Amino acid sequence: MEATHEIPIFPLGQVLFPAGRLGLRIFEPRYVGMTKQCIRDNAPFGVALIRAGFEAGRPAIPCDLGCTARIVEWDVPNPGLFSLLARGESPFRIVERRTQPDGLIIARVALLDPPDPIALPTRYEPLGKLLQRLIDEIGAQNFPSPQRLDDAAWVGNRLAELLPIAPERKQQLLELRDPLSVLAEVEQLLKDLRED
Q1: Structural domains for the chain
Q2: Burial letters for 153-191: b for 16+ Cβ neighbours within 10 Å, e otherwise?
Q3: Is the CB of residue 107 less than 8 Å from the CB of residue 96?
Q4: pLDDT at position 53, please?
Q5: Which SS3 state, helix, strand or coil, does residue 26 take?
Q6: DSSP class of residue 149?
Q7: Nearest CA among 63, 70, 71 for reference residue 105
């Protein structure tokens, strides 16, 4: 039987990828409590794309596959408000979930093994060069460090984050477990965007 962990789930209208950066403003009481506990225990929480519902108000229904996040920077600009920077860690699959009385979703999740490291194949070097140009234009401080432009998974995940496509399409990229499949999809999406 696979090992599982219990973590709070933050359903969002965006997809978090491993090593990705996620800025959040936390003000709903259920997430303020979650944030305090995660900071206190240096514990992760889960980010999952909303399958049905909305970010605020009644608990949304999350997709079954998401990514754990760990808070790396935080600030309290006003009482009851947190500004966070979190970093994506491990993809997970929700095994079961329940909703607490305060609306916070708690899930038992199975962490998915990371793919074996694969060097960026020669065929996809243009994607690595494109990403380098984007890093230079947007600013290296807006990307996870260290930069791993020779790593197929890192390049695929960073381009997937930047592509101007629907969150549901990004979710499909997250669910692809093979970095070369992600790069192939990203390459095709870029061709499609150029043709539009």
Answers
A1: 5-111 (2.30.130.40), 122-195 (1.10.4060.10)
A2: bbbbbbbbbeeeeeeeebbebbebeebbebbebbbebee
A3: yes
A4: 67
A5: strand
A6: T
A7: 63
pLDDT in tens, the chain (196 residues): 467 899 999 999 999 999 999 999 999 999 999 999 999 999 999 999 998 866 666 777 899 999 999 999 999 988 889 999 999 999 999 999 999 999 899 999 999 988 888 999 999 999 999 999 999 999 999 998 889 999 999 999 999 999 999 999 999 999 998 999 999 999 999 998 887 6
Residue written as tokens 């006003």? 78
Cα–Cα distance for residue pair 55/58, rounded to 1 Å: 8
pLDDT score, position 57 = 63
- The rounded radius of gyration (Å) of the Cα atoms in the chain is 17
How far are the Cα atoms of 14, 26, 43, 160, 184 from residue 68, in angstroms, in the given order?
Answer: 14, 17, 10, 17, 25
Size of the chain, expressed as the number of residues it contains: 196
pLDDT value for 82: 93
Report the distance separating Cα 159 and Cα 138, nearest Å.
Answer: 13
User: Rounded to whole angstroms, how far apart are CA atoms 39 and 37?
Assistant: 5
Q: How distant is the alpha carbon of residue 152 from its chain centre? A: 17
H-type alpha helices, 81-166: 125-138, 152-162
